Amino acid sequence: MKAKAAPKKAEIKGSTYLVKLRIDRRTVITVRNKESLKNWKAKYPDAVEVI
Predict the structure, then answer these.
(1) pLDDT of residue 20
(2) What is the pLDDT of residue 15?
(3) pLDDT value at position 17?
(4) Cα–Cα distance, 46 to 10 (Å, whole number)
(5) CA 15 to CA 12: how far, in whole Å?
(6) Rounded Cα gap, residues 24 and 7, in angstroms
(7) Cα 40 to chain center, whole Å?
(8) Measured between alpha carbons, how far is residue 25 from residues 8, 11, 29 in Å?
(9) Taking the model in full, what pTM does it have?
(10) Integer-rounded Cα radius of gyration of the chain
(11) pLDDT at residue 9, as a whole number
């Protein structure tokens, strides 16, 4: 009998926090949580949040 694996945090659906981040002139990414936003803003301080 196989045991069910617990879902990982990244697999949990229903996250309502989505932010688009413009890194440069042509690159736009979507981040799902505040920690990711903080990390990307640290790497690219000139990044702009796009709603």
Answers:
(1) 94
(2) 64
(3) 81
(4) 27
(5) 8
(6) 34
(7) 9
(8) 34, 30, 12
(9) 0.63
(10) 15
(11) 52
Tokens 């702009």, residue located? 48
CB atoms within 10 A of CB 11: 8
Instruction: Write out pLDDT tens, residues 1-51.
Output: 566 655 555 545 666 789 999 999 999 999 999 899 999 999 999 999 997
Distance, in Å, from the CA atom of 42 to the CA atom of 21, rounded to the nearest integer, reads 12
Is residue 20 within a helix (H) or strand (E), and if so which, with residue range? strand 19-22
Planar angle of CA 44, 18, 23, nearest 5 degrees: 20
3-state secondary structure of 33: coil
The tokens for 13 are 């659906």
Q: 51: which 2 tokens? A: 């709603």
